[in-house]
Amino acid sequence: MSTTSEFTKRTGQNTENGQKAAWNENEADDGGKVKHEKKVALGKKVTLLSGVSIIIGTTIGGGIFIAPKGILKNSGNIGMSLVMWIGCGVLSLLGALCYAELGTCIKKSGGHYTYVLEAFGPQIAFIRLWADLVAIRPAAMAVISLAFGQYILEPLFMPCVIPPIAVKLATAIGVTSVMYLNSMSVTWTARLQTFLTVCKLLAILAIIVPGMYQLFKGKTENFQNAFDMSQMQLSGLPLAFYSGMYAYAGWFYLNFVTEEVENPERTVPLAICISMVVVTCGYVLINVAYYTVISAEELLASPAVAVTFAEKMFGKFSIAVPVFVALSCYGSMNGSILALSRTFYVASREGHLPRVLSMIHIHRHTPLAAVFMLYPMTLLQLFVGDIYSLLNFMSFMRWLFIGIVVLGLIYLRFTKPDLPRPFKVPLFIPVLFCLTCFTMVFMSLYSDPVNTGIGFAISLTGIPAYFIFIYFDQRPKWLQRALDWFNRTLQILLMVVPGE
Predict the structure, then answer these.
(1) Are 210 and 313 within 8 A, CB to CB?
(2) DSSP string of 59-120?
(3) For residue 2, what pLDDT is reported?
(4) Beta-bridge mates of residue 261
(5) What pLDDT is attached to residue 31?
(6) Given pLDDT bands bounded at 50, 70 and 90, which one contains residue 433?
(7) Contact in structure between 63 and 89 (CB atoms under 8 Å)
(8) Which of 214, 238, 240, 397 stands 20 to 30 A from 46 (CA)?
(9) Tell me: the pLDDT tens digits for 368-395?
(10) What pLDDT band is residue 12 in, cutting at 50, 70 and 90?
(11) How far is CA 353 from CA 65, 241, 346, 439, in A?
(12) How many Cβ atoms are within 10 Å of 369's Cβ, its own excluded?
């Protein structure tokens, strides 16, 4: 997979011989003189505001509108569900601080993949990449996209039930539009992300403010016996943890685009800390608002929690809430693609994926092939799974590997003590985070053995894949020709070239 096609080699030689005009964006005046020349590369266009928007915009998505049901169901009561929300927020902040250290000492894009590669080498990094490519990322995109499809159609079908096939078709259209946008412009993608972040904060305020108003008026009957332990089972807590951490998942996305961040030593930790405080406070308050207006039984029976809340509070004006929620989900889809395409871009640059995936569009300066990498697998999972089975399926692998990444931070402290660390966390923080992640991961093997077992098996298939596609230099000639043809054809069709 890592072999560069002869076409790419020849093109690279041409560049070295001075024929750079074919790959650079030259503009000429009427006299034919070149006015300026731009490199074909990813620029540093992510500021502190953009970084905060990426994290908040990606974190606050469908999770806060999907996870309350999963957390309440598996924690057993309202009190424990709120404790889980606070606990997941604190744990996410600890993990985010660990990633802030990694992002400032390893200034490469790629996130989890890059940090595993630096700490444990190419074998473990490839297994992480393989799990990302075939399972984790498509499933995560499918979950948030299905939430988008559900909410965007809600105003059209109220009060009827939305046909499942309509939800999936609307979801497919949403995924396609996000992929197109990310392939066109990094600048406009970042601007849209800022706008959608404002929309989702408005959606959250539209729930928090009236909910708090009702609470202060004395509407507290749903909080009576909040810690009733009769329905609580310890085996459900790992699944409640997964639902909560899924809602907070997003604090690591800025690390995927580190190479495009202005002044990463300052911007990365500051953006992460600001974002996590805002998200945690917002999540706890929005759940208190939910429980003030909706009983536990009504919440568990609701297919769309925010819509049920809006119908009770706003009456005929409730139609606006699902629209804002859909925009919130769309923002998460947009931020996810912006970040994750950079993982495949970096992995291709390291030789773990086809060479064409690390190439940049000659005019738009976007990693076009890497953006579309997730598209077919996401559409496949859209039509074969439901939200909660997909959530448990991908959460096991996601948190196993995030635990491994933070374990890598501890390992690098001892193996590379002289590595520059502009931002450094106390050692107990990564240790506590690792222990929590691994404990929940292995408890989930008992709670949901089928989905977690499937996820573990898929991860293990990365071992033979590594030896077949990466480790052995001598590939069969037919496979080598196929890889060369794949690289050459996509490079021509997508008009992409190696970055400079």
Answers:
(1) yes
(2) HSSSHHHHHHHHHHHHH-SHHHHHHHHHHHHHHHHHHHHHHHHHHHHS--S-THHHHHHHHH
(3) 43
(4) 46
(5) 45
(6) very high
(7) no
(8) 397
(9) 777 777 788 788 877 776 666 666 667 7
(10) very low
(11) 35, 33, 9, 32
(12) 27
Parallel, antiparallel or unpaired: strands 496-498 and 359-361? antiparallel
User: Which residue do the tokens 């933070």 mark?
Assistant: 406
Look at 320 and 425; give whichever has higher pLDDT: 425
**CA-based nearest residue to 343, from 312, 370, 313, 320:** 370
DSSP assignment of 141-159: HHHHHHHHHHHHHHHHHTT
Q: Is residue 206 classed exposed, middle or buried when 0-12, 13-18 and 19+ CB atoms within 10 A define those classes?
A: buried
Range ranked top by mean pLDDT from 92-106, 324-338, 370-384: 92-106
pLDDT digits (tens, 9 = 90+) for 178-237: 888 878 777 777 788 778 878 777 878 888 999 999 889 888 888 887 777 766 677 677
> What is the secondary structure of 156-212 as a DSSP string?
HHTTSPPPHHHHHHHHHHHHHHHHHHHHH-HHHHHHHHHHHHHHHHHHHHHHHHHHH
For 477, other C-beta atoms within 10 Å of its C-beta total 8
Range of weakest confidence among 5-19, 210-224, 280-294, 423-437: 5-19
Q: Which two tokens stand for residue 206?
A: 């539209």
* CA–CA gap between residue 297 and residue 364 (Å, rounded): 51
Q: Which of 108, 97, 112 is nearest to 272 (CA)?
A: 97
Using DSSP's 3-state secondary structure scheme, residue 4 falls into coil
8-state DSSP, 467: I
- At 97, the amino acid letter reads L
Buried b / exposed e along 336-361 (16+ C-beta atoms within 10 A) = bbbbbbbbbbbbbbbbbbbbbbbbbb
Give the length of the chain.
500
What is the pTM assigned to this prediction? 0.73
Strand, coil or helix: 37: strand
